[in-house]
Structures
1.
Amino acid sequence: MTYCLGIKLKTGLVAIADTRISSGTETTTARKVTIYNEEGHSLFLMTSGLRSVRDKAVTYFNEVIEKEHSTNNFNKLYKAVNAFGEQLRRVASEDRSSLEKAGLYFNLHAIVGGQLKDDDEHKLYLIYPEGNWIEIGEGTPFVIIGNSGYGKPILNRTVNYETSISNALKAGFLSFDSTRVSANDVDFPIDVVIYKKNSFEMIEHRYEKEDMAKISDFWAQELQVALQNIPEEWMNVVLNKVQ
C-alpha cells in the first residue's frame, strides 16, 4: 500500500510520500515521488498502485519530456497532466489484460502538483487509473492516494486553503504518522516536497524514522493529555447507570 498526500494552499503546495513497498512477506523501500525542476517550470508526480505500472507510466512520461528536450513543451500544468494520463492509458492497453488474468488490478492513481510558466497560480491534480483527472481546489484542498482512511480526520479538522505551509506540513506529518501506526503497509522514510507560490522551484527533503521520533512521541503524549482534559459532565447520565 502507499500513503501519498498533496495539499494546495494559498501560499503554495505541500506533498508527503512514504516509501514502503510490500510484496508478500517481503518489504522494501522505493521512491514514489518524481520531481521536475526547470526555469519557469516546476512540478512533482506521486503515484499509488502497482509498482510495475507506475514505473512504466513514468518511464513513458519521461520519454515524452525527453523528446521535447524539457517540460517547456507544456506551458500549463494541465497539459502535462494530460500527457501523463495518455501514457497511463498506453500502459493500460499494453498490460491490463495480462495483469487481470494474473488476478491483479490495474489501479494506479497519481497526484501532480506544481506551476508552469503560463499558470496563473500553482495547481494540484488527482489522476485516476483511466487517465482522467480532477483539479483539487479551495473547498477540500488536499488529497490522499493509497491508505487514506486513517489520515483524513486530522486534515479535515486542521487544514484549509488559508493554512500556512508550516502548519500544513505539521498536519500532513501527523496524518502520515496516524496511518503509519495503524497500518503495516505504510512506513518511513518519507519524502517531503514544498513549493512556494510563483517560486518555480520544488524543495525536497527525506526524513528517516529517527528524525521524527520525538515528534511522534510528543503527539502521542499530547493526545493522552487532551483525552484526560476532556470535560466529563456529559458522561454522568450513562456512568450513573453503571452499578
Note: The chain has one domain: 3-230.
2.
Amino acid sequence: MEQNLRIPGPTPIPDDVRAAQSAPMINHRGPEFAEMLRETSAGIGQLIGTDGDVFLLTGSGTGAMEAAIVNTLSPGDRVLAVSIGAFGDRFARIAQVFGAAVERMDFEWGTPADPAVLAAHLASHDPYRAVLLTHNETSTGVANPLRELAAVVHGATGEPLMVVDGISGLGAMPFEMDAWGVDLVVSASQKAFMASPGIAIAAIGARAHAAEASATMPRFYWDFSEARNLGAKGQTPWTPAVSVLYGLRLGVAALVEEGPARTWARHAAIAAGAAAGLEALGFRLVAVPEARSATVTAAWLPDGVDWAAFDAAMLQRGLVVAGGQGKWAGKILRFGHMGDVDWSEIEEALAVTAEALTDLDHASDPNAARATGRAAYDAQMGASVG
C-alpha cells in the first residue's frame, strides 16, 4: 500500500530528489561539493529575498534555532519571546537555557500574535536586545502576520534584533527577508524544500552579522564565523550531510524554477481546499481564515472521536497525519501540505479521513469532502491567477 504522508515534516520527497540522495559520496573539501553548496545557498537566498549569508549546517531545525540564539546574544540580554504555540515555546526555552533574560508574550494557542499588542508592549518596556518570532506555528496551523510584526519590531526603542523561526514556512509562504527587515531566519531541509532531514538553514542579515562580534553565549559546532570562513572556500566547518545536500539542491532548484509567487499561490490554494474539505466532514478548524497556515491545517477532533482509534483507521488505509502536541495531544489533527504536494493527494486524504470517521460511527461523505475541497482549491487558484 502506498503511503500518503500528510504530516508537517518530514515531507514527501520527489523521485528525482530521492534518486539524487543515493548518489556516491564525494570529497566535501573538493570543487564539486563547493559548487553544490554555493548553488543551493544562492537559490535559498533568492527564494526568501535576501542578499545576506545563507548557511547550510548539518543538523535539525532546532539546531538552527539554537545557532540563531548563541551567535547573536549574550547571557543576561533582554529577550522578548513571542509565542503562539509549541515551537514558539521551544524558541524561548533555548534562549533561557543559554542565559538570556527572557520575557514571554504568550498568545492563546490557535491565534496569531497581534501587532498592536506587541507594539504597546515594546513601547511600555525597557528596550530588548532581540525579539523572537515564529513565522508559521506548526503545532496549531496558525501563520503570524510577519510583515506587520516586523514593522513593529523595527519601530521599537533600541531597535531589537528580529529573529525568526521560519522552519515550516520558508519556501512555501510569502517571505521577503531583506524587504521586511528580518535580521535572522532559520529553516530546515525536510519541510518545503523537499529533501530529507539533516540540513539546518540559517539566513543572516547585516545586523545579525554585526551582533556576532559582541555575542558571548558559548558556541562551537554552531559558530557562524566558522561557517562564514569555510563557506568562502565552498566548504562547511564540519562534515556535511552530503546525501541530503544532493537532494536539497534539486528541491531548491525546483522551487526557483516554479518561482516564489507561483509556489505561494499553489500552497495557499491547497490549504484552502484542505480547510474546506475538512469542514465539509464536520471538523471545526483551529485557526480563523485570515490566520490559517498555508502549509499545515489543524482541526479539532469531533466529539467522541478517540485519536488513537482514528489514527489507526487512517493508517490502515495508508494515510499518515499528525496529531496534537503538548496540551493539545489527542485533541486535534494536523494535515501537512507543503513542498512536493498537489491537490490530488489532499483530495485522497480527505476521502480516507471520511472513511475512517465512518469506521468510528461518524458517518461522513467522502464525495462531498472531495467536491467541496476541490471547489475551494479551484477558486483560490483562480483568484491568484486572476
Note: Residues 260-280 form the longest helix (21 residues).
3.
Amino acid sequence: MATETQAKITWPEGVRLPILLTFEHQSGEGAPLFPGDRPNYMVGGAMQYGARRGIWNVLELLDSLKIKTTFFICGTTAERYPDGVQAIHAAGHEIAGMSYSFDRVRTLSPEREQSIIARTSKVLQDTAGVQIRGWRCPDYRVSPNTVDLLAQEGFVWDSSLLNDDLPYLFECAGRNIVEIPFTTSTADKTFIGYPYPQRGGPDGLANVWNNEFEVLYQESQRAARFMILSLQTWAIGRPAPLRMLKLFLEHLLGHEELWFARASEIAASCRR
C-alpha cells in the first residue's frame, strides 16, 4: 500500500517559478450519457472538437511561443485520431496517459484497472512511438490501487489528485511515484465548459489565471511554489478561450526566472 512522503522541493538554479501547462486530450469519451446509456451528441460533439480541430489550434499557439508541455491522452482518441497524437510528439511535447476510454476506475478491481493502464500505454506507444511514464485518472477519480498499479507498471509520476500546492512522493513497495497535484479552480472547463451556463467565460478564466500567477510569483520569493493549469483541447482550443491563453502566456513570458516545464521535468526535480 502506498505511503506518502513530503519531498523537499528545490527547482533548478535560476528558476523562481515553474509553469506547468497540462492539456487533456479526448474525442468525446468523457461525455455523460443520457438515461439508458443513450449518447449525448451535443456534449460529445463539443468534446470531439478537441481531437478534430482544437488540438491543431493549441499546437500552433504553443509552437509560436516556443513552449513545451504535457498532454494527457485517451487511448481511444489515439486510435481514432492518430495524426494529432503524432503531431504532439513531433512538436516535442510530453505524452502521458489518461485511461483507454475515459474509464472510471474508482470501483474497478485491481486487475481491471491494471489492464486499462497497460492497454493505454500500448496504444500510445504504437501510435507515437513513446513509452509513457506519467498518468492522470479521468475526472481525477483515483481508486485505492491506482498509485501502486502505476508503480508496478513502471510509471514515474501521476497527476490525479487535488490535495496539495506542491508535488510529493508516494512510496510503493520500494519504488517512488511523484504526485503532481493541481487544482480545478484554474481549470478551463470550470469556466468555459459544460454544463451550461458557463461560469465566467473566457474573461473570468483569464482573471483567475492572472490572480493565481501574481500570488504564486510573490510567494515564490520566500518558498518553493509552482503553477499548474489543467486545460481541455476541446475547450481551450476554441478561438475566444485560445486568445485568452495566448495573452496570458505572453504576459508570463515577460517575467524573468520562469520555467515552462513538462511534468516529467517537475518530477525529476522532486526526485532529486
Note: Residues 41-65 form the longest helix (25 residues).
